[in-house]
Amino acid sequence: MHRPKAESPALTSKTICSQMANSLLMQPVALLIMKSLSKSAQTLSL
After folding, report:
1. CA atoms within 13 Å, Cβ hemisphere of 44
2. From CA 42, how far away is CA 10, in angstroms rounded?
3. What is the DSSP letter of 24?
4. How far is CA 1 from CA 10, 16, 28, in A?
5. The whole model's pTM is what?
6. pLDDT of residue 25
């Protein structure tokens, strides 16, 4: 379950996307990015 090498970049991307979403006030583009990340995370966890 624990994969530091895989999680580090993912956490960094999440932080960047979160900051982007906050600065963009959750614009459609930010929502699409977050949705894509969620789908990727679900696919990897399955």
Report:
1. 12
2. 13
3. T
4. 14, 23, 32
5. 0.35
6. 62
